[in-house]
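FAQ: What does a multi-protein file look like?

Like this. Sequence, then tokens, then the next protein.
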Amino acid sequence: MLNSHNSPRIVCLTGGIGSGKTTAAALFEDLGVAVYYADRAAKRLMEQDAELRESLIQLLGENVFNNLGQLNRDWIAQKLFNTPELLNRWNAKVHPKVFDDFNRWVSCQEGSYILKEAAILFETGGERNCDLSILITAPEDLRIERVMKRDSWTREQVKERLNRQWSDERKIPLADFVVENLDLKTLNLEIKRLHSQLSKRFSQQ
């Protein structure tokens, strides 16, 4: 285990685009589990941390932020996702900031375990910083439909994003728990069952 006996255990939750990982995290939150949303934290830090802002501008230019100081997310995505070397350099600037922010947040939490929701986990070896990992999955066609409805993307746009991500088949062997998200009712039941299991497991350690 990563933490001392009296500290909350760290459970990481991940899933590909359209899997419903954020919905699953919110269900844990409804059960009283403290949840750290890594992607939201990264956005906050990129927009508010002066040192990080400057380093990102140096990497990609002034267009990283709009006139309101907000991330130009579509523009950034176009720049990064077609250039793996640039994406790696971007992540090398952002990830350490998120890591430090998460550790500060954990130090303020109580309970038998906390949850870290992150879009990318196994791809970076991040599971080594977790006590346990949960992977949220869903059939590809369902994931595509969800993203098309949520983001008003075309099927081709969603497929392109899916093709850039690791498949569920590649991630499943690396996860401690796998939850298939077919509908909200079933997902809710699965999260309640898993929460009960985790609470019992960690309270005995």
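And here is the next protein:
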Amino acid sequence: MMPPSIIVGIANVDRKRDFTFPTTIEKDKKDFPTTGGSARFLAFVENELQPFIQKNYKVSETKTLIGQSLGGLLACEILAKKASLFNRYIIVSPSLWWDNESLLKNFQPEFALNTQVYIAVGKEGKVMEGDAKKLMQTLQKQGKAKVHFAYFPNEDHATILHNAVYKAFSLFYPLK
């Protein structure tokens, strides 16, 4: 289904720290006291991880990022701030509610050539579903990337990931 690939999984000990940017919401600061470290995590990906992979392995131009929930928020932050780090984004149930949806406001990513973004959400409530649709609409209005959107009415936040990733790869790498 897809070309030979190098898959990198990054284990982490505090996803709330690594996958979120600082919030202005006092309740979130109280409920999640370790948050706000995504800039360091993003710098690690850009300055250490990607150069290491490029130096030590035969790679192609295609770089795919997959993120779900807070990982989806991180993928959206990378898309907003450093979009050229990847040219395929699989964003599943992104937690765009973080910091009163501040990431969605003034969202103007600078895409790499031939960027594709796949956004998926399940039956996860008004906020999650609405934010995923807002992300899709924002990206479509910009017209700079090929955007795919999928709603999975039979999946929820806990069950959507595998099916969504499979569908994304089906779109990115159609059978010939």
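Q: Is there any per-entry metadata?
A: Some entries carry free-text notes. For the entry above: The helical segments are 15-18, 26-31, 38-56, 70-82, 98-101, 126-142, 161-172.
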